[in-house]
Specification:
The chain is of the alpha+beta class. The chain is about 20% helix and about 45% strand. The N terminus is likely disordered.
């Protein structure tokens, strides 16, 4: 049972490293520069008895010729019986400790990705989707100065609700600081 659980958890694509700014990507034709942070886990919840789990990873991307940035949220599920997708204009809500809420709209459609794998004698289903949310300079400043406590992502299967731990909220703050200071 333990072996099966560890294998199931390993199927979720987590990045478990320190938050960092990746090497900038410079387009050879237009000379545009794109900065991005490493992908980090902002939420994880697992049930060890049923080998079910949910997670959300995030990444922040900034383009040299645009204001603001893009917040990429990647909700993931394991053995939850759902196929996640995020449609254009579906919302993500970020609630902070002072009860303020930032509402972001997805700028793209993503039909999601669902996989079935054999883990021992059991079939494991994993599903994930990518939501790209344009975020203004003002909202970046709010995220840098406040503590995120709750995240809701609208998906095709309903709301994906996440209680955010302080250490994970600090990683999102750090990502925003890195992106703002990227040059």
């Amino acid at each position: 049972m333990k072996k099966t659980l560890f294998m199931a958890i390993a199927l979720l694509p987590f990045a478990v490293s320190a938050q960092k700014l990746l090497k900038p990507d410079v387009d050879k034709l237009s000379n545009d520069t794109t900065w991005s942070t490493s992908e980090e886990k902002v939420y994880f919840h697992g049930n060890f008895l049923t080998a079910q789990g949910e997670a959300v990873t995030f990444q922040v991307i900034k383009f040299s010729k645009t204001k603001g940035a893009v917040l990429v949220l990647n909700p993931q599920s394991l053995n939850m019986g759902e196929v996640l997708s995020i449609a254009k204009n579906q919302k993500a809500y970020l609630k902070f400790s002072d009860n303020t809420i930032i509402t972001l709209a997805s700028s793209t459609d993503d039909d999601g990705n669902s996989k079935y794998s054999l883990v021992g004698h059991n079939v494991a289903q994993s599903s994930s989707a990518l939501g790209y949310y344009d975020i203004s300079d003002a909202d970046i400043e709010k995220i840098k100065s406040k503590t995120l406590i709750f995240l809701r992502i609208e998906t095709s299967t309903g709301n994906f609700d996440c209680d955010i731990k302080a250490k994970n909220a600090a990683m999102l703050k750090k990502a925003m600081e890195l992106i703002v200071n990227a040059k």
